[in-house]
Amino acid sequence: MKRRDFLKYIGIGGAGTGLGYLFGKVTQSPGNKLIPYLIPPEDIIPGVGAYYATFCTECSAGCGILVKVMDGRARKIEGNPRHPVNKGKLCMRGQAGVQGLYNPDRIKAPMKRSGERGTGQFVEISWDDAVSTLAKNLTELNKKPEQLYLLTSDMRRRGHQHTVASSFMSGFGSPNIIRHDLLGPGNLEFANHASMGLSAIPHYDIENTRYLLSFGADFSSAWLSPVSYGHAYGQMRQGGNGRGKLVQVEPRMSLTGANADEWVAARPGTEGVLSLSIAYAIIEKGLSRAGDAGSWRSALGAYRPSEAAKTVDVSEERIYSLAKEFAQARPSLAISGGNLEGYENGPSCHMAVSVLNHVAGNIGIKGGVIPSPEALASAPHPMTGPKNSLSRFAADAEAGRIKTLIVSGSNPVFTAPKAAKVEDALAKIPFIASFSSYIDETTAYADIILPPHHPLEDWGDEFSEPGAGFAPATVMQPVVSPLYDTKGLGDIFIMVGKAVGGKTAARMPSAEFKDYLRGSWKEMYAKNRAMAAGAPTFDEFWIRTLSEGGWWGAESVKPRCAAVSVHAVKEHLSKSVAAEFEGDEKAYPFYLMLYPQAAMRDGSGALSPWLQEMPDPMTSVVWGSWVEINGKTAASLGISEGDVVSIESPFGKITAQAYLAPGIRPDTIAVPIGQGHRQYGRYAKDRGANPIEILPFKENPKTGQIAVNSTRVKVTKIGNGRLVKQEGAARELGRDIVKTMTPAEFERIKG
Amino acid sequence: MSIFSKVKDRLEDLRRPGYFKKYDHKFTMVIDLDRCNGCGACVSACYAENNLPVVGKEECGKSRALNWIRIERYVEGEYPDVKVKFIPVMCQHCSKAPCETACPVYATYHNQDGLNVQVYNRCVGTFTCATYCPYDARRFNWFTYKREKPLDQQYNPDVTVREMGIMEKGTFCIQRIRAAKDRAKDEKRALKDGDVTPACAQACPTGAMVFGDLNDPESRVSKLAKSPRRFRLLEELNTDPSVIYLKRVMKDGRGTSEE
Amino acid sequence: MAEGHQKSSMSYKDVNEDIYGIITRSGIGYYIICGLFGAGAAVLFILPWAYQIYVGQGVSGLNVPVFWGIYLVNFVFWVGVAHAGTLISAMLFITQTPWRRAISRGAETMTFFALMLVTLFIFIHMGRPWNFYWTFPYPTQRQLWTNFISPLTFDVFAIGTYTTSSIVFLYFGLVPDLAALSHTASGWRKKLYEFLSFGWRGTDAQWYTQNKACMFFSAFIMPLVVSVHSVVSWDFALSLVPGYSKTVFAPYFVTGALLSGFAGVLLMLSIMREAYPVMKKYVTDYHYDRIGLFVLVLSLMWSYLTLMEVVTGLYANTSQEIEHLKFKLATPPYMQLFILMIFCNTVLPLVYIVRKVRGSVFGRFVVPVLVLVGMWLERYLIIPNSLSRKFLPWMWQDYAPTWVEISISLGTLMMFISMFMMFVKVFPIIALFEVKEDIGVPMKNRKHH
Ligand SMILES: Nc1nc2c(c(=O)[nH]1)N[C@H]1C(S)=C(S)[C@@H](COP(=O)(O)OP(=O)(O)OC[C@H]3O[C@@H](n4cnc5c(=O)[nH]c(N)nc54)[C@H](O)[C@@H]3O)O[C@H]1N2
Ligand SMILES: Nc1nc2c(c(=O)[nH]1)N[C@H]1C(S)=C(S)[C@@H](COP(=O)(O)OP(=O)(O)OC[C@H]3O[C@@H](n4cnc5c(=O)[nH]c(N)nc54)[C@H](O)[C@@H]3O)O[C@H]1N2
Ligand code: SF4
Ligand code: SF4
Ligand code: SF4
Ligand code: SF4
Ligand code: SF4
Ligand SMILES: [Mo]
User: Fold this and answer.
1) Which residues of B25-44 are buried (b: 16+ CB within 10 A; e: fewer)?
2) Hey, which of A61, A95, A340, C76 would disulfide with B44, CB 3.0 to 4.6 Å?
3) C146 interfaces chain B, CB cutoff of 8 Å
4) How much is the average pLDDT of A451-463?
């Protein structure tokens, strides 16, 4: 019982017994609502926090977290110090995880559509209704089960939740699992596989490298595993191991670029060319450590610095000096991501960087690229490709091949270009069920919603990448009892599967998902001797795993070595590795670069008021969108800060407010991804602009990855405005506020 | 002791800044700017730990965000030679805090742990402390900010929720310090290095923030505080801050030798 | 001296009746105007203030780091206006300057009401005004005490003392007048005067005591006047803020206060004379001549100190001071406001060099209004403006008052006017007994020319 409530009731009593009596009559009696702490519920000690281990689902890095629970409520998320990925640290997105749980706009019970599709109007129904409606619909498809499609995200590291979903689909008889994840690392995976033969993302050993050459990989914000790499970055700089140098190649200065010792503003789309010309220069100067340098020299003939310099807009001398430093610093490491991932020829760009690592002898060494050990257990791990891409989905829907669609964990109406015509596709599908916690843009098209628990209320597991020397297996467990009438995600598939009956039901685990999960871990335990060490029985192991948050092999698994052969990548590098951009250079003079921020990522962060109010690190803008324009460019267009500008590509037009950025090429503009929602709750809705809308729909034919940096745009001022940002002035005016010292002096004081 | 020397002592006492001859602790934060990458994890951690309200776009536009810690970003040079520096700034817990002289009602004062504490209940909202603070570390409750239900369920019960008319600022997570001291007392031992980690330092991915007791010569902060890279923000103002920064190493940085 | 500015041919009765006439005889128009100002105050001040208290200080334009806006500007402005009144009375009383007699009461009254606004603005600018009494050192069980090194605590004492002494000073002067008027008056006024005059009968002993008391308070108040505004200036000068932290502030503020105070008195007299033509008998061109000279001299002093203020900043030559000066002197709209301020406070008062101008309509109305505007601007350009450009450029932020602040400022001005007008309807706005001194007072055994 809350003291304040107690006083309130006393107060009411005092105000007049008659009134108090009436009050008691018309409302329920206070005693019914107040929970006495005389016999507190299990696990709840009033005022004392308990910490539950689970993992962060805000991005695919899979950081281990501890949730501080007090009085049955999740109060705060902290990093799990034992977890090898994040080592007790957490990013801003991870902190805000609780805001998804307690978001006022969460779906509180199953719902069915009550308005037009897309408007997001629903009425609550019971679970029985919801499950039977969906099951009935599916039973009607029994003859042609391939007419059921599952639209999901890059769930491949989401362990057994994903396994259950896959079993559901295969049991039903449909191979049609469409994967759409705007920011997934599909291109990188493909490139690593093709060039180095790696099946998983390797560990980029930033911590131990002495020279980090990053091609667009903004590991401080959103690239792959920002917390893990953030930690490694800190260690690289001041870990006591000699200070590593960071060089960042990108047309728009990212947060990582801002921290770099050198920032190389290569022409957009030519980073791969630059990488190969550096590789060429290394070989030319005889600095290569690869045994097959000779064959590479001839293979890279087209990338002589003298010729590449003009393409990449980086001087020949600079290419040679980068080559020299990169080859001589030991160990050095080149990484690629960010804008490269988003080029239409992303895989080639990544491969170009693999080649550079190979030539400099950085693969398989400490401080270089370290191939990951096999994951402990993982769901089937299909690469996204033409077979399960969004364009296939759109085509199938258009042709009427999709009768029923289940959406779970993907929101392509928001994250795919308008040109992909996802909305038209959805309109063609007779029945759509969404397993979503929020009414996002895609769920707004659903006929029925079966809301899963929030991950903080749910069971699951995760086998995260990257990780050198360990293969972490992390458990998701409920840290609070469910707030609303929702079900575990795994359980929803099981329930529906059982209701459908037949082979589908047979493929579903007999028990609840929670027990199925435990059973699966028991199997893993039985197979894995290392797991048994220190825990003679499975029950002991399981309890320990739940309290520690997961299991990570104590012993390091020897990373396999990998190399890049000319033969493997020749096909991909034969064409120019410079990316193409839509739009005529005259009519559309600017390259459009889209980028994710740590807070919003693909837009899923927009529902959190904390994240909305977190200033963007590079602009300090809050609660909205902006477009970064070089100051000189802006001046030539008559644009000053805060002005409303229209950004027009051949595929559409958006408006945003101008931020005059010092660190961006004059021929490039950049817009962050994440705002511009039309649904998705009160904090996200109708705020800013969604730049994805104006992209061409260019899917990489190999990976199905959508190119987000693939068009040119024109920029016109259409009005005045004031940008809401935190920065007053970002210049020190000679005050020497943030004091610095030169690397030379640092070396001296260290000695 | 003669009465004369007693008076002399007393007068000298009065001239000594702060309130105590000797602090029980001297809590100090060391922030390594060469590690910090400006990611802002510390900012959100402070929101989560200290029940900081979200004020919304309009209020942010008026510079009324209620952040106890912010990442300042300073830019030098023009394209393409742009250099960017980040610095997390929170209340510096100045040992000679200008804000403390300012407050007419002692709502902000120095405690025996070397902390600049803010007593919400005592504050009458004169703003003086905030105008006097050279670090612009103080924030005001312009309104009573409410969290929309059920977002209020994540309030940290260890920290009070402030109401309209009150000044506030970073506390070095005093609730964690108190809890750690209580724990140490329960275990009948002295507070030791690493017992207290403020929320921001706990989250910081790069490990840029280290917190501890400067009175303990063996603590990590005591060692880091001796770094030749140390400096304090606006040190020339003689506020004697308890936040020690370590210089960023960068090309064209200002070496002391050049000066 | 005193050439022709008072008619020695006037009888005491004339004086009594003239002045009682001011109190009682005015048309309905006067009351309507007074009522309108009162209503204006209620609507423009009371309602918005209630709103601000209910909703929070957020309804103002204040922000981080501009925590002090026009409430504090008004606070300092009214402290300034409050200065002339008592100073005129006290200083001129001590020096026995005869021309003070006709204007001292008006000036003191102005001081009284200005101080009321000063106190009000302290409350208005507070985040939790209902706890204002925590700023007083009073014994409590919780052993909470005030912080005696805070300049705000100095303020509490300085302004508290100044207000108390000003009220006492005003009241001491009123006693003989109220006694005199109680004979002429009737109705509730008579009762009030009798009660307030505390049985004053005008005995020699009483006159002697009254005179001594006034002399004492004059001597007491003079340094107080200097100290009050010095203390107010320390609210700013004791900080580190560029633009605030200047040793010149105490004299600068005091001079500015006197300048605005004298301008205020000048304007008040001119308006009163228009409202009550009978006052023209008492307040003559001679007064304008004298006050004009004061304003001229104060303006020159103020201008010098303004120059010093700027030059001190330039001389410091730190980025902080320079940026602050740039913001104040070279950034629109503050540049324009600065120019306007210099025009109002430095250029315009120079017209008083010409004797004829001092008594002209221009000199009586236009110049003092603009000097008051200029002095308000001076505070504006110091208080919020300096906070806009503090040490860390990242936090730089501009400030503009909102409708609430503007409305409260105007409303309080209206309240000032309406209360002044009401005061005039109850109490003699010209000191009867002092005017009578000019005519020649047989009861008083002090000589005069
Ligand atoms: N270490 C530490 N000590 C503190 C404080 C602190 O912060 N730290 N806070 C202080 C403060 S602010 C306060 S107010 C006090 C509070 O201290 P106490 O007044 O002791 O408050 P409680 O322990 O909450 O309640 C006292 C008892 O009342 C019983 N009780 C509850 N309801 C009723 C009822 O209806 N009738 C009767 N007869 N008994 C009832 C409870 O079961 C409990 O045993 O503690 C003070 N002491
Ligand atoms: N759960 C629960 N709720 C209660 C009560 C209860 O017993 N249990 N008791 C009720 C009663 S009687 C009272 S009086 C209220 C008290 O309620 P609160 O006023 O909220 O009191 P505390 O929780 O004791 O302290 C508030 C916070 O101030 C922090 N703090 C401590 N010292 C300082 C300081 O010097 N400076 C700053 N800035 N912060 C400091 C503490 O870490 C704590 O987070 O709570 C009421 N509510
Ligand atoms: S990087 Fe951040 S969002 Fe991603 S899993 Fe880790 S804490 Fe969560
Ligand atoms: S969390 Fe650490 S690295 Fe990130 S901004 Fe804060 S101090 Fe810097
Ligand atoms: S940083 Fe500001 S608020 Fe904090 S102690 Fe120093 S002066 Fe006070
Ligand atoms: S705002 Fe509060 S803490 Fe600050 S000086 Fe005023 S009363 Fe003191
Ligand atoms: S120490 Fe605590 S209060 Fe201070 S900035 Fe860090 S999290 Fe916020
Ligand atoms: Mo209490």
Assistant:
1) bbbbbbbbbbbbbbbbbbbb
2) A95
3) yes
4) 94
